[in-house]
Amino acid sequence: MNEALLEVRDISVSFDGFKAINALSFSIAEGELRAIIGPNGAGKTTFMDIVTGKTKPDAGEVIWGEKNVSLLKRQESQIARLGVGRKFQKPTVFEEQTVYENLLMALDNDRSPFAVLFYRHNENDNQRIAALAEEIGLQDHLEKRSGDLSHGQKQWLEIGMLLAQEPRLLLVDEPAAGMTLEERQKTVDLLRRAAQTRAVVVVEHDMDFVRNLDCRVTVLHEGSVLAEGSLDHVTENQDVIGVYLGR
Amino acid sequence: MQGPLTQFLMKNPSVLIFLGLLSAFTMFAAIGSEAFGIGFISTSMIKTLGKTLCFCLIAIAMDLVWGYCGILSLGHFAFFGLGGYMIGMWLMYERTRLIVENSMANAALPPTPEEIQEAIGTQIFGVVGGAEIPVIWSFAHSLPIQLAFVVLVPGLLALIFGWLAFRSRVTGVYLSILTQAMTLALALYLFQNDSGLRGNNGLSGLQNIPGLDHVPQSHISLYFLLASAFALGLGFVIAKLIVENKMGNVIMGIRDNEARVRFLGYHVETYKLFIFTLTAIMAAIAGAIYYPQAGIINPAEIAPIASIYLAVWVAIGGRGRIYGAVIGAALVSMLSSLFTGGQIPNIEWGPINIVWVDWWLVLLGVSFVAVTLYAPKGIGGLFDIIKLERNK
């Protein structure tokens, strides 16, 4: 386990007495693709909140990278700069701004106000943005206001913004929600390609989507890990069947 | 290869249009003035125009912090007033010193520095029952230092206030209330006689520039109009440089979805603090040019309502676009002085009696509600419609 990129140890958090996460342990290796499934209220989104610094757990450890940095004392922006990128459930792009501007903000350039204030557009960044736009299929929409994109295009733009950040770990929350069948397949391809160079964690409800991802699956239930393994392995697990069938 | 300046101007024609209109306006005012022109614009009108330009400048600051960065500050008039106080201290002190020295020059015995200090103290602080010159007036004799204070004092206040507020992640309406509390607290403090700034009397006689007694007010007012126009033009360009660059992308991102910007790795609080402080300084500079034209400043100027008016100007003009703020401030403040200055005849139809001084506020309130409900883009939104029509 020493080559784990992210290791979560025994974290617990409760909101008003409700245990959203209960002694959860989880780890993911560099360059791994992983799907997290689980019924509503299993703690999937809270898990992401904890890793990205939005929520502080009551107990436990979150350890990052080869230097074993604890993420618990870091702010959201610091965690993001360490290399954790997050895609939200609802597509959250900056609707008032163009696709180009959205990607520009996400590029892994210096984030200090002075560097941003005196930023000059340059060929290198423009090329990177063009390449990213190509990757997410938005090369013809660079100057379009992102609020005018279709739902699926917004999802891809957000994934593109995550890739622009050059994160080492990508947390993706329900990427396929509200997508057409064709858009789903494109999204699967996009995530699989992304996982070739970095670790990707996908939270998803849709079993077909998870099957297409073809990766190791972690099942969460009531804030802890119920089962882990290949999709076929976990769907044969009696506990998992019980949870999903409501027994 | 074009220079960055040419590129910027090509992409933002509104900068050239604005600077052109502003120059034409100043030229028109100079030609019409009593000082050098044909004199159909009175000196008091020149002052009103100059003051209006200062309002436009603080409106740009308000638009940056609210329209672009999403921080509804209802306290920026405090910075405007502080800027006015800082320059007012020098104006009042130096003028009083010159008068005192003049009147003492004919005395049988040459006055000692202590006597001069005491006479100045009595002159300035007699109204609040004191003769001692307070410590905060230590540098009032020095124009460069007081000019530096115009920037430093409000800037530092904004920096400390903003740091405390943003660090605790106070946002939205709670932040607006905090800024109201800040400006109210400052006004209440200044109202006290022992605040060292003459309590509710404020500072007066600011239109008289020390050492320029021989220059008539008609000239001085025109110089201040030019200074106001220059500051406004500079403010417009700086604001445009900020919002049309990556900084603009980031602060608009903060306005629309603060959490998302944080997850992109930007330290949101630092950005807010930068914009808040920068706009406070812009407001302070506007105030420092405004009050020598107004002639008097007192704590009532920074009452909470002033900052609310500022938000109304920007909302009516159209926030999220720099020229919208300018239009709103110019239009509403000019209309305000028209309606409250007695230029519009009151209406008396039997039982209905409309006195504009009272009804102006009702009118303003109704138009604010109407703009918020039916034209959230304000007057500036009209330009979008024109653009759309042309592109059809």
From TrEMBL, chain A:
It comes from Maritalea mediterranea. This is Urea ABC transporter ATP-binding protein UrtD. Residues 6-247 form the ABC transporter domain. The keyword Calcium does not apply. Keywords: ATP-binding, Nucleotide-binding, Transport. SMART domains: AAA. The lineage of its organism: Bacteria, Pseudomonadati, Pseudomonadota, Alphaproteobacteria, Hyphomicrobiales. The keyword ATP-binding applies. It holds the Pfam family ABC_tran. One of its GO terms (molecular function) is ATP binding. The gene is urtD. NCBIfam families: urea_trans_UrtD (TIGR03411).
From TrEMBL, chain B:
Coiled coil: none annotated. Pfam families: BPD_transp_2. Keywords: Cell membrane, Membrane, Transmembrane, Transmembrane helix. Its main location: membrane. It comes from the Bacteria. The keyword Signal does not apply. It is found in: Cell membrane. It is a multi-pass membrane protein. The keyword Disulfide bond does not apply. InterPro entries: ABC_transp_permease, ABC_transptr_urea_perm_UrtC, LivM-like. The chain crosses the membrane at residues 15-41, 74-93, 145-166, 173-191, 220-243, 270-290, 296-315, 322-339, 359-383. This is Urea ABC transporter permease subunit UrtC. The lineage of its organism: Bacteria, Pseudomonadati, Pseudomonadota, Alphaproteobacteria, Hyphomicrobiales. The gene is urtC.
